[in-house]
């Protein structure tokens, strides 16, 4: 049962998917080698960066999620009380406000 539960949280790295945000989807692809390392080809720089984000999300979604929460001062919502001081510091330094200014 635990193996089946954990397997559902693994990233899907085989097959194809469509992304409406790509500029030239017909020329864009991510191919993984035997070690699982992604190799990206695309016609535009934008598509390369977009697909890099997709591959990064597939491999390290937990890290992206925790980094966003850390910057927003909301890490303790899932990490518990041990992260409360980090949340306070992040809020005092205004990381979320600074990040929103870049968007």
UniProtKB/TrEMBL annotation:
It comes from the Eukaryota. One of its GO terms (molecular function) is hydrolase activity, acting on carbon-nitrogen (but not peptide) bonds, in linear amides. GO terms for biological process: antibiotic biosynthetic process. Gene3D superfamilies: Penicillin Amidohydrolase, domain 1. Belongs to the peptidase S45 family. PANTHER family: ACYL-HOMOSERINE LACTONE ACYLASE QUIP, PEPTIDASE S45 PENICILLIN AMIDASE. This is Uncharacterized protein.
């Amino acid at each position: 049962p635990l193996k089946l539960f954990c397997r559902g949280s693994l990233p899907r790295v085989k097959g194809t998917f469509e992304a409406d945000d790509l500029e030239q989807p017909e020329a864009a692809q991510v191919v993984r080698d035997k070690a699982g390392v992604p190799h990206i080809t695309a016609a535009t720089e934008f598509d390369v960066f977009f697909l890099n984000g997709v591959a990064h999300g597939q491999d390290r979604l937990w890290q992206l999620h925790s980094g966003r929460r850390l910057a927003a001062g909301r890490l303790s919502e899932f990490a518990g009380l041990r992260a409360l001081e980090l949340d306070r510091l992040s809020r005092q330094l205004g990381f979320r406000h600074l990040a929103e200014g870049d968007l």
